[in-house]
């Protein structure tokens, strides 16, 4: 793990360091180029200034006029060479005869180079680079005039290219020292930047970040609950697939991004009271459905940057809870029936053996009472344990309110392979029963259930008129119930009759066929 961290740190360091190094190198070479040009221009300017100074000296004019190399003019040339760091100061006549030279053997000999022509013939000052007796050098030529403006000769002042290179090297050395210091500082800055970036990524490698991101995305997209992520302004920034479906149902929108959560889900107390700094759980009711909404803040470096909202459909949880209770009731009923069956056989056999026919008659009437035989009928007539257990549980619900609950089953209901259809059908029946109990219209309720033509038929007959009938219609037109009808592909019809209402519901019911 440490090697991976070092590798990433090294990559970041090299990336930052190379970027800075390239920038510094470019600046260095540009400045070096500019410095070389500037030094040469300064040298040329200095040479011309020295030449002008000598051209105005009476000693120089006198020597050129007499065309004689005197000790005085030799000393003057030598003094200027030493004072200004020159390699040579050559004073020549118009016929190119040297009157001064660092090498005394060259005095009274012709000047070499060929670049002195303009200064001698035209009286123009020039600067050029050419080869002479001292090698290649930078040379300035300044004409000397008398008081009448007549040209007497030319002064050539110069530096060898070796001397120029030494001067340039000295100047470059300071820049090189600065460059080295900058590179060292850049390396430290690169190390610090890479370390900071590594810490910003929580010491994770790119591969680890990619794996972690894919794992989070897989969890986020495939979780059953609706998950919504908002920014610090409570605007939706991320929604999983379940969340998009839920928002399409609650807010009728398929593009929730950028919308405020309080706009899509109104009356949400957590956002209404601006209580988004702590984790909260809230029950929310809309369109006949209860939702549990959990809101938790997203904190990055002790700063709240948004919220994560998890929405659970409490109807589904309630359905699962009821399904568990119904299954338990079904299993308990089967256990009781198997135990009671033998006891009843023993009692019937004993009463028959004793020829106590009156007592036998009363006993048979007792065991065939609705309270005793309802569970048995559900078990024998309905081959689907979920439906049987649900109806047994619903009977207990009605009996607790001292209301009758009898169901006619014909023909028998076979088992099915589609559990989702059954659960949706159970939710439909539960909603209708809750509505009937709410309207207090269950006293003379009649229920018929049967299977025919691959459909599960359900018929309710109940005394219902006037305002209660209108209330029932409103309930059956709610979004929740309408979604149940659509999800199960059911068909519902209402037949109002005199003092009665008949409700027909037909639901597709694929049966389970056992293979031989």
TrEMBL record:
Q: Keywords of this protein's UniProt record, alphabetized?
A: ATP-binding, Cell membrane, Kinase, Membrane, Nucleotide-binding, Phosphoprotein, Transferase, Transmembrane, Transmembrane helix, Two-component regulatory system
Name this protein carries in UniProt: Sensor histidine kinase
The UniProt record lists the keyword ATP-binding:
yes
A Gene Ontology molecular function term for this protein is: phosphorelay sensor kinase activity
Family matches, as InterPro entries? sCache_3, Sensor-like_sf, Sig_transdc_His_kin_SpoOB, SPOB_a
Entry membrane topology: Multi-pass membrane protein
User: Does the entry feature the keyword Cell inner membrane, yes or no?
Assistant: no
Q: List where the protein spans the membrane.
A: 173-197
Q: Which GO terms describe its cellular component?
A: plasma membrane
Q: Which residues form the Single cache domain?
A: 35-171
Question: What taxonomic classification does the UniProt entry list for its organism?
Answer: Bacteria, Bacillati, Bacillota, Bacilli, Lactobacillales
Species of the source: Vagococcus intermedius
User: Domain SpoOB alpha-helical, which positions?
Assistant: 331-369
Per UniProt, subcellular location reads as: Cell membrane
């Amino acid at each position: 793990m440490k090697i991976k961290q070092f590798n990433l740190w090294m990559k970041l360091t090299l990336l930052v360091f190379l970027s800075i190094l390239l920038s510094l190198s470019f600046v260095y070479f540009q400045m070096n180029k500019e410095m070389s040009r500037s030094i040469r221009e300064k040298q040329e300017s200095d040479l011309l200034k020295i030449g002008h100074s000598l051209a105005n000296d009476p000693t120089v004019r006198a020597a050129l006029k007499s065309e004689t190399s005197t000790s005085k003019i030799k000393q003057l040339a030598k003094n200027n060479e030493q004072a200004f760091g020159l390699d040579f100061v050559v004073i020549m006549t118009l016929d190119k005869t040297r009157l001064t030279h660092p090498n005394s053997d060259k005095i009274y000999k012709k000047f070499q180079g060929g670049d002195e022509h303009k200064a001698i013939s035209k009286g123009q000052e020039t600067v050029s680079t050419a080869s002479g007796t001292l090698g290649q050098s930078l040379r300035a030529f300044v004409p000397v005039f008398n008081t009448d403006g007549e040209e007497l000769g030319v002064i050539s002042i110069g530096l060898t290219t070796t001397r120029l290179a030494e001067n340039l090297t000295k100047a470059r050395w300071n820049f090189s020292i600065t460059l080295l210091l900058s590179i060292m500082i850049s390396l430290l800055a690169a190390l610090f930047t890479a370390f900071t970036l590594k810490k910003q990524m929580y010491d994770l490698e790119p591969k680890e970040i990619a794996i972690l991101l894919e794992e989070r995305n897989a969890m986020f997209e495939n979780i059953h609950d609706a998950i919504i992520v908002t920014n610090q302004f409570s605007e939706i920034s991320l929604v999983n697939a379940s969340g998009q479906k839920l928002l399409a149902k609650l807010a009728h929108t398929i593009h929730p991004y950028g919308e405020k959560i309080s706009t899509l889900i109104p009356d949400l107390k957590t956002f209404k009271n601006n209580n988004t700094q702590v984790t909260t759980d809230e029950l929310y009711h809309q369109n006949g459905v209860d939702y549990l909404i959990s809101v938790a803040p997203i904190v990055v470096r002790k700063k709240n940057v948004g919220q994560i909202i998890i929405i659970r459909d409490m109807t589904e949880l309630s359905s699962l809870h009821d399904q568990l209770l119904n299954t338990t009731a079904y299993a308990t009923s089967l256990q009781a029936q198997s135990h009671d069956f033998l006891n009843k056989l023993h009692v019937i056999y004993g009463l028959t053996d004793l020829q106590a026919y009156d007592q036998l008659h009363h006993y048979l009437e007792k065991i065939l009472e609705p309270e005793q035989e309802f569970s048995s009928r559900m078990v024998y007539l309905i081959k689907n344990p979920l439906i049987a257990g649900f109806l047994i549980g619903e009977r207990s619900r009605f009996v607790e309110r001292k209301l009758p609950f009898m169901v006619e089953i014909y023909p028998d209901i076979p088992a099915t392979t589609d559990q989702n259809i059954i659960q949706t059908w159970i939710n439909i029946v539960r909603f209708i029963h809750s509505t009937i109990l709410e309207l207090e219209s269950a006293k003379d309720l009649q229920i018929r259930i049967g299977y025919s033509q691959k459909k599960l038929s359900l018929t309710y007959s109940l005394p219902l008129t006037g305002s209660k009938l209108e209330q029932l219609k409103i309930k059956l037109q709610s979004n929740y119930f309408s979604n149940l009808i659509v999800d199960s592909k059911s068909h519902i019809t209402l037949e109002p009759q005199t003092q009665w209402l008949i409700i027909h519901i037909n639901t597709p019911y694929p049966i389970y066929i056992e293979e031989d």
